[in-house]
Amino acid sequence: MDESTATGIKDVLTIAKPILDPVISALIAPKIERLKAWIKKQDIKDKVIDNTFENKFAEYLGRTYSKAKQINILIFPGLQIDLQEIYEPLSINSKIKKVDSRGKRSISEVTLRLDSFKEEHIDPFQKILISDSAGMGKSTLTKWICLQTLESSLAIPILIELRNLTVNHSILDEIFDQLNPIDQIFDRDLIVKFLELGQFLIILDGFDELPYENNEVIIKDLRKFIDRTDENWFIMTSRPEGALSAFGDFQLFNIRPLRLQEAFNLIRKYDEVSPLKVGESLIKNIETRLTQVHELLANPFLVSLLYSVYAFNKDIPDDKVTFYEEIYSALYKKHDLSKNGWTRPKKSKLSLLQFRILLRQLAFDTARKGSVSYSESVILDLIDIAKGKCAGINTNAEDFLDDLLKAVPLFQREGHKIKWGHKSIQDFFSSDFITYSSKKENILNWILETKQDGFLNILDFYIEQDFITFRKVIIYQLLKDFVRHYETSYNNISQIPQDEINIRRTLTYDLEVLFTKENSALSSDEIEDFASNKIKGYNEGLKNGYYYPLPSNLTQLDALVINSFKSDLLHKIVVKVPTLKYLKIKDTGFEERPIHFNLPVDQIYEVNDDPTNPINSILNFEETNSLLMELGPFAHAYFSYPDAKAELRRIELELANDKKANDLNDF
User: Fold this and answer.
1) Distance in angstroms between the alpha carbons of the first and the last residue of the chain
2) Which ranges carry the Short NACHT-associated C-terminal domain (predicted)?
3) Count of the separate structural domains present in the chain
């Protein structure tokens, strides 16, 4: 250990000593005592006697405390900010589903306001998944929870940024490296023993940032680790992802959008750390244009960008795309709000447009890989590759990277890694790349074919940047697939009410489901083999479990669900197209009621339109629909076939007219 590193650790430990000492005495020391016999067998008794392990844990906790307490914010590049100075308490919501002994379902909504973090926030659930869209403050929240956990001696926090995991670097490797950054004093088996004893809060941040390559291997390793160390509490964060369904035992929470006064509080907190003091002026402008900026104010990250854009040009953008356009211009031209807008010279010598051309190529290339964090050598190689695709761009990778970190700080350096300042920045410039590509239609069709969830947010930008192409490629193809499925499925099912058949057609669009009885005589290997053979994508980790009782003996039914990219995308865009809509279940006369299946146990049932399938019998068809309503992307709602059919016809007519106009050279 070099002298500066040792000094830094000592300084942190000195400052945080009153906070860390209770954690050591209450949580670490008792674990070592409980493992005394095992430790003696491992011939590491001397290290225990001289307090080596307590000291090393103190160093680890000091590093964790420092990392969680000091954060970087895109709008204040290079400035380390105390998290507690700018944290605006968030609230998270969840719907808790229960089934009583008679099969009666009930749903209660739980809201947790996170102005503190206590045992009652986590213990009733044990495992929590916080899933929400970009910019809702998930990563900031995990750091704040980490701080609260340390300051209250509630548990031993371990904060894992999941983007660091690879096929060759497991979650256990990551924990081992965090505890042993230099001297490798901890024995790997000892760490596992510690984890198995419990009293850890393991925070898994950014599931959606796992690399696409060999994603299923990483997910299986993560799942295995959680099962092995289930005496601990777990919190996972992610954007919505199909593969999250591998963690069906986590209670799902969503972050409640900021309310108006909470957004104003956040703006005032930014004012406290900025020399520009534009907060009150911004708030007054917002109050006169609430309808225009309502969507932006609900999202903490967008509130921060709004502050930055307003500080730059004293104006409020009209939409999300313009918003990101202006934040790019602000960062390129006068980026540093912590230095009164001081402009740093660009080493790359690229103009505003040239810089953007190279940046969007880099964004799309890295989005295709599903990566947001890189070693310096890797990101330099990626910049060189991107530059080779951009005719007329003359600069070197080192200078461009320096600009991305300093002059136009859309990237951040974290230890030995370099990452996008926020994933939504990568999403926006990836969408920008598609918008200006001569192969945009091919790219959009490729996105549909690959079904990578990471592109859902890119398409959310793209629909605003180029709705015409989006409509004639993405919406057209989705509606064609949906209408084809609706019209060709369940045509040989008899003695079932037509309304129920129509609901089933809608609910099963691009969605594959298996039923089996939980805790049945079937082995997990038998279920895995059946699922692997029946459902494409199962081996990619896209599976889920939802549990409902079988009234015959009050055991439970297990539904393995493959979440669909196309189905999710169709639900996502319907709000953007006025002529498309959902039909709410209440509109169909559906009522909450017990679900009673009449199915033999110890068998696996696939949801399909086979008339001989027991779940399609008169006794089970409607019950299956009721269960599928719970499992689908939008519970208690389904897509309107007549509206989809009408919109498809309109697009087909427009495409025919476009072709005719092109044939006549009518420009």
Assistant:
1) 70
2) 466-654
3) 5
Concatenate the DSSP letters of all residues of 421-479 into one string: S-HHHHHHHHHHHHHH-TTHHHHHHHHHHH--TTHHHHHHHHHHH-HHHHIIIIIHHHH
Contact criterion met (CB below 8 Å) for 149 and 155: yes
Of 195, 221, 255, which marks where a domain is finished?
255
Q: Pairing relation of β-strands 233-238 and 127-131?
A: parallel
Tokens of 35: 């493992």
- Tell me the C-alpha distance between 210 and 164, whole Å: 8
The tokens for 164 are: 């660091």
Same domain assignment for residues 99 and 167: yes
**Residue 652 in domain:** no
By residue range, what is the domain housing residue 635?
486-646
Q: How far is CA 511 from CA 242, 460, 500, in A?
A: 11, 22, 17
Structure-token pair, residue 370: 């599903």
How far, in whole angstroms, is CA 41 from its chain's centroid?
A: 43
596 within 8 A of 655, measured Cβ to Cβ: no
CA 161 to chain centre: 12
Same domain? For 250 and 264 the reply is no
In this prediction the pTM is 0.76
Contact status, residue 69 vs residue 19, Cβ threshold 8 Å: no
Asked if 313 and 362 sit in the same domain, the reply is: no
473 assigned to some structural domain: no
The pLDDT of residue 5: 46
Report the alpha-carbon distance of residue 615 to residue 623 in Å, rounded: 8
Structure tokens at 118: 């206590």
Segment (H or E) for 171? helix 171-179
Looking at the fold, whether 524 and 619 belong to one and the same domain comes out as yes
pLDDT confidence of residue 183? 59
Q: What is the pLDDT of residue 666?
A: 54
Query: Each residue of 183-226: pLDDT tens digit?
Result: 556 677 878 888 988 999 999 998 888 877 777 788 889 989 99
**Inside any domain, residue 313:** yes
277: left (phi over 0), alpha (psi -120 to 50) or beta: left
Q: What is the CATH number of the domain that holds 133?
A: 3.40.50.300
Show which of 311, 339, 367 is a domain's final residue. 339
Taking the C-alpha atoms of residue 424 and residue 321, their distance in angstroms, rounded to an integer, is: 11
Q: How far is CA 568 from CA 130, 453, 456, 480, in A?
A: 18, 9, 9, 16
Spatial contact of 368 and 208, defined as CB atoms under 8 Å apart = no
The reply to whether 232 and 285 lie within a common domain is no
Please report the pLDDT score of residue 624 as a whole number.
Answer: 86
Taking 50 as the pLDDT cut, the residues of the chain under it are 1-6, 8, 49, 335-336, 338, 341-342, 538-556, 586-590, 667
Q: Is the same domain home to 332 and 357?
A: no
Q: Do 251 and 267 reside in the same domain of the chain? A: no
Kindly state whether residues 607 and 504 are assigned to the same domain: yes
DSSP letter for each residue of 212-227: STTHHHHHHHHHHHHH
Cα-to-chain-centroid distance, residue 381: 27
